[in-house]
Amino acid sequence: MDAQTQPRTKTESGSIHPATLPGYVHLTAADLERQIDFYEQVIGLKLHWRKDASAGLGAGSQDLLRLTEVSGAVRLRGTTGLYHLAILLPNRRELARAVARLFALKYRNYPTDHIMTKTTYLDDAEGNGIELYTESPEDGTWSLANGEYITRRADGSLSDGREPLDVEALFSHLKKDDRLDAGMPVETRIGHVHLHVRDIDEAVNFYHDVIGFDVMGIARPFRMAFVSAGGYHHHLGLNTWQGEGAPPPAKNALGLRAFSVVLPDKTELEHVAARVKNAGFQMEHNEEGFLVRDPSLNGLILTSRAD
After folding, report:
1. Which of 39, 101, 209, 299 has the CB geometry, 3.0–4.6 Å to 258, for a possible disulfide?
2. Measured over all CA atoms, what is the biggest interatomic distance in the chain, rounded to whole angstroms?
3. Domain 21-304's class?
4. Which helix or strand (DSSP H or E) is residue 69 part of?
């Protein structure tokens, strides 16, 4: 059994189950048709369903993205909400295909080498941040110690962790018959979600003490923190880059409606829900599980895997 599937021991009972993973991100859209077209044609997701003013997209299995159109929705700055959603691809070949598609479409993106991950950054058609990445731990490690990033290559040398990605080396993983217009593979999932919050300590207290994620590091000089389940580098990023004490967005704002966190079963879901209730946070039952809002009013849906 690996760390993602091992059951919790008694001493770990305060932590969320290590097999917990991000589920989907739900965004408000001003133009549903335009957003669907972007995520199909530029990103490579598939339309799973569409009903009235909402739609769900993914890689053929579970939804990774949901969209709901709100007439007159506008982009607001200086508020809490989504910094970016991060789509995790299973290997370098699939990342190469995704980046090559962006290049072929001449869609602006920023390939970056974080050493232990290879990634590119872009915005969708309505300004929501996206990261496309794959894991590359064989190239080195990343950690936060005493509030500072430490990125070390496999040969022991230090990196700033934000190097330009060697795109030619990445493209060497492509095969001659790889189609750039093919969809993302079914193994694709949401790797992490990065949020704007109003206060780092407040957010860490909620996601660690109440929800149960482990703190992977706090970088106060950068005004950010990372939390995760099962020892992953981060399932959630938290930052105050929109300002300390930033207000929540208005109801007609583009961007985050909610994101889901998927527990391995209903027992674990009830375990976390009880902790949320005991901490005094209001929860709203829905068909998937429970909706709760963090102190910055970012929506979090707690759910579990289907039996």
Report:
1. 299
2. 57
3. alpha beta
4. strand 63-69
Q: Scanning the structure block, which residue is given the tokens 């974080």?
A: 114
DSSP lists the bridge partners of residue 89 as: none
pLDDT tens readout for residues 5-42: 333 333 345 899 999 999 999 999 999 999 999 999 99
Rounded Cα distance between 257 and 58, Å, is 17
Token pair 């970012």 is found at 298
Q: Tell me, letter by letter, the H, E, C secondary structure of 193-209.
A: EEEECCCHHHHHHHHHH
Amino acid at 305: R
For residues 160-193, one letter each, b for 16 or more C-beta atoms within 10 angstroms of the residue's C-beta and e for the rest, the string is: ebeeebebeebeeebeeeeeeeeebeeebbbbbb
Q: What residues contact 168, with CB distance under 8 A and at least 6 apart?
A: none
- Laid out side by side, the sheet with 46-51 consists of 46-51, 54-58, 63-69, 21-29, 255-263, 299-304, 289-293, 283-285
